Structure formats: C-alpha cells, structure tokens
C-alpha cells in the first residue's frame, strides 16, 4: 500500500494490485498514454527525485507535485517521527540499477541539503540524486559512465 500526496493537500492510497491493472503505455521517453474508464489521459514525468520520493507530473496539461510514501515511510510517520528525520544519512546508495551520467561533487566538498550530487539514468529517465542533508563529501565510490546495481554505495558523507 502506497500513500500518495498530490500538491501537498490531496492524499490517496494505492495498492500494488491497482497499479498492476493500470492501463498505461509509454509512448515516448517519460510520456505515457493512460486509459481510465474509457477516457484517454496523457501523462508526462517532468522531474523525479528518488531521494525525496518527489515527482513532478503533467497530466492533460496540468502539472502536479506528487510525494510517494511507502510502507516504511508510513510506519515512521505513524510513530510520530517526521519523514525528514532521516537527516543522519551518511551515504547515498543507488535506488535502482542504472548508469551514472554525471557527478556534480568532489571529495571534500561541502554540500547543502538538496544540492545535486549526481545524475543516475534508470529506465530511460535522468534522476537527480540530491543531498539528504548538509555535510561534507567523504568519498565518491563511482565514476561517470559506470553502470551501478540497486543499493550500490555511490557517495559517503563525513
């Protein structure tokens, strides 16, 4: 079960089963044709941030900011902790398999929360991985052009 928040004020619950029955076809890179109740819908993913689980999606020429909360996020929230309480993250791992297109930081560099660290191409999408907190880059474990597996260590903080 996923909890989806749209434009920070509308919340929906979506099950994995309902996602599997979605009639969606990718028409081109990041663009989709969806059929719901015999009504065609045009959707496009404008941007995605896997660290923050935040997406900008254009549906029939309207743009929506979408936050996705998985089961762990919902448990953390239910316990009274903020989702952002994970600011003590000391490393960045690949959220999915992909290709490192660009690395925007160097070892020893000071970064602020939400600074772009690198770009990971996965499933035909360029995903900007951003810093989850202020800190200093201790090490960069990948190189530009390198293929990475899910959960592979990419960047470590001091």
**Helix content estimate:** under 10%
Global shape: globular
Strand content: over 45%
> What is the terminal-to-terminal distance?
35 Å
Organism: Winogradskyella psychrotolerans RS-3
Domain Lipoyl-binding: 80-158
Protein name: Biotin carboxyl carrier protein of acetyl-CoA carboxylase
Keywords: Biotin
Describe the protein's architecture and organization:
A 7-stranded antiparallel sheet has the order 2-1-7-6-5-4-3. Helix content is 8%, strand content 53%. It is globular, with a radius of gyration of 17 Å. The protein folds into 2 domains: 2-71, no CATH class; 88-157, RNA polymerase II/Efflux pump adaptor protein, barrel-sandwich hybrid domain (OB fold (Dihydrolipoamide Acetyltransferase, E2P)), CATH 2.40.50.100. It has helices at 16-20, 71-78, and strands at residues 2-6, 10-14, 23-28, 31-36, 39-49, 54-59, 62-69, 91-93, 98-103, 110-111, 116-122, 125-130, 135-140, 147-148, 153-157. The protein is built from 2 helices and 15 strands. The model has no long low-confidence stretch (mean pLDDT 84). The protein is mostly beta strands and 158 residues long. It comes from Winogradskyella psychrotolerans RS-3. This is Biotin carboxyl carrier protein of acetyl-CoA carboxylase. InterPro entries: Biotin_BS, Biotin_Carboxyl_Carrier/Decarb, Biotin_lipoyl, Single_hybrid_motif.
